[in-house]
User: Fold these one by one.
Assistant:
Number 1:
Amino acid sequence: MCAEDAGDLVCIACPRSCLLRVDPKDPSAVLGAGCERGLEYIESETTSAGRVFTGIVRVEGGARPVAPVRSTTTVPRAELLGVARRLATVSVAAPVAFGDIVFTDPCLGIEFRATGDAPAAAGVNEGRSA
Ligand code: SF4
């Protein structure tokens, strides 16, 4: 049996994972928070919730077919599916290096950085001078 109700939130600001609940007798009070960050967390979750978006992009000519990426800021939850659809259309040329900005979402202006390398496939850049 799950102890959580639909109105409960688990704070993810630290590993303690406090179960937060708005006091039914006083909607302005939050129960279960182990510290002030929990109050900030439930405030942000109930007003402007967002998530850091992690995914992959296709890499053309790479030793690996994809590179991992993550958004540099949080993406509003209502926009997550749209971002996923747009990111699925992205294809970049190898090489991709950790930290490269590989995509800027055209609707939200949020940048996505590579979180891993995707070197060029052997032979792709051979014969070219730097
Ligand atoms: S309320 Fe504070 S102690 Fe509890 S999980 Fe959040 S940050 Fe950690």
Number 2:
Amino acid sequence: MSATVAPSAIVNMENEVVATPDVLNIVVWGESGEGKSTLINLLLGQEVAATGKNPAGVTKDLRSYDVMIGGRLVRLWDLPGAGDKDVPAYRTMEMLGAVFADRPVGGLLLLSSNPERMPLGAQLVAQMWDMSFSGMDKWASVVLVGTKSDKYDEDDPVADVNNFKGPVLAEFNKTVDGDIQKVCTCNRDDVSEVKSMIELLHTENGMGEYQQQDPSRIAAMMCDLNGLPDGEAREAEMAKIIEQINADRNELQGAIDRLREGAQASGMASNEGHAAEEENRRREMDAVVDAMREQHRQEVERLEGLILEQARRQAEPPQQAQPQQQAPAFGFCIQLGPLKISI
Ligand SMILES: Nc1nc2c(ncn2[C@@H]2O[C@H](COP(=O)(O)OP(=O)(O)OP(=O)(O)O)[C@@H](O)[C@H]2O)c(=O)[nH]1
Ligand SMILES: [Mg+2]
């Protein structure tokens, strides 16, 4: 049985107090719709996180939930899926970077509902994760979780548990140059293997230090994954991602600094004072989100300009044609959205 405490969130000082060195922070990530929020609800034994079928993604913010598993406090982090229409994965990684700059990450549950092959979003998550954490044995703290196993076809040898735990895992390790050894499956009726894996994570060393990456390295990886060849479109895409990452870092750092100052100032405050402080924090975070929405609007405008410019060039007579360019990839790579952080 799992006991729960209230959901916590980024730089919530109340929850900092709850956070003893024993808290095991576990990030639940993977492509949109793989069942991250559902798994968290099942582990908590109550419906705390919104779930649903939406190709554009359901979870849009970063939020943590506390639960006791194996007699230890585990903090599960739910977040937008890789491939979310509004929040590109690199922005989610920036949020995680802000959260985990000064606290340890005990593990990653990397979800995939496909027993035949790992999706591109999972590859993106694994590569970004690998870049961002320095632990020598970090792969020991990554668990590949096959979700929705009720949909597997046990009569089809390439769509069953064994295929997922064997060939699919081996192929994925090769692709991401990883060494994931922990693998399990689950479904709505049975998450016991996931719980056992989480208990195992207590015995590992975790992910190591978070290391902020050069934005150009992240941008190059995103472009590679999206198959964007060298050329003007790639350069434009790189520049956009780099600009966005830098802007996010500034916003997040500023917001965190303000929240910390506020929390320190109200450390001994009465309940009433504390509530007022909470309200102030909320207002500050709303301001951050508004600023990011505005960034998003400007970004969309800029991209529309880029598309129009490309269309204009393509319409030009052949003698004036530019070297062949591929239009920017409109996947998760460039679809920016407001960055939301829940308190
Ligand atoms: N058949 C089946 N469906 C499931 C299972 N787990 C989740 N689902 C369904 O899958 C859909 C997506 O689940 P979510 O938990 O919202 O997925 P998510 O990964 O949090 O999605 P985003 O927040 O969009 O990234 C929902 O309709 C769930 O009901 C499962 O074990 N079996
Ligand atoms: Mg979700």
